[in-house]
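Section handout, structural biology tutorial.
Before the tutorial, make sure you can parse a SMILES string by hand: atoms, branches in parentheses, ring closures as digits. In the record below the ligand is zinc ion, and the chain has 273 residues. In the tutorial you will relate the predicted structure tokens back to the input. Do not try to memorize them.
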Amino acid sequence: MKNRIVLFGLLVSLLLGCVEKSKNNKPVEEQKVTTASDLESTSKPDVFYQYSIWFAFVNKVFDGDLKVSELKTKGDIGLGSFDYLDGELVMLDGVPYRIRENGEITVGQDEDEIVYSDATFFKEDGVFKISGPMDYTSFQKRLNTEMESEHYFYAYRVPIKLDYIKLGGVPKVEKPFTDGLDLLLPIRPVFEAENISGTLVGFYCPEYVGNINAFGHHFHFISDDRKWGGHVMDFKTSHDINVPWDQKTSYAFDLPKNETFENVKLDSEFQYN
Ligand SMILES: [Zn+2]
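Predicted structure of the complex:
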């Protein structure tokens, strides 16, 4: 019985200690006050955003209704393609670059429309270093080993010096859309460059995403001089790479609101990398 009283007393004093401790928290004037810039950064959603679905894109839904001005509200990095495949898209620091099939690069205007896009506000969760030499395949394998879990989404914004890069564009199409990506990608324009520096913008989607997005890594590139860009097909580097990464646990997508999407036959399945 005595032991119980001692134990009870000990518990009471522990509890009182806790209360006392919370009373002794930092004085009010030292407590963090939320500033306008804090609000601005927290108000940007920590979401992996996607426009249209991969299943629609591979089944020839090549006219979207997402305006560039709307995409800018969904992220400051992104990748995708413009309407009618009139250019690959890579967004960096909120600037949406358009790489046309002849390799010309311009900045997408607010009224321009996008057919497919991944985007997010990049919020760095960490950085890891990869020692060169390295090619694109080994780079992707290394990302897989570094990620905490392959069940989350990841965004990457990687400054990189390259010995070589092979980039893919998209061939512009007109209505009626007859050929799907399975036929168009093998004839896509290809741009190759050597001794070039720039930024890789990319995303990783888990396998369970199915037909909504493409499983695995997907990267686009824009050079520092903004003269080279597109879908990354291959690269080689002898330099070390610091890889800033951002894990995403929220995912959202919008669907095209038009007749092409309403009437599309979702039958062709096609994954690429
Ligand atoms: Zn791409």
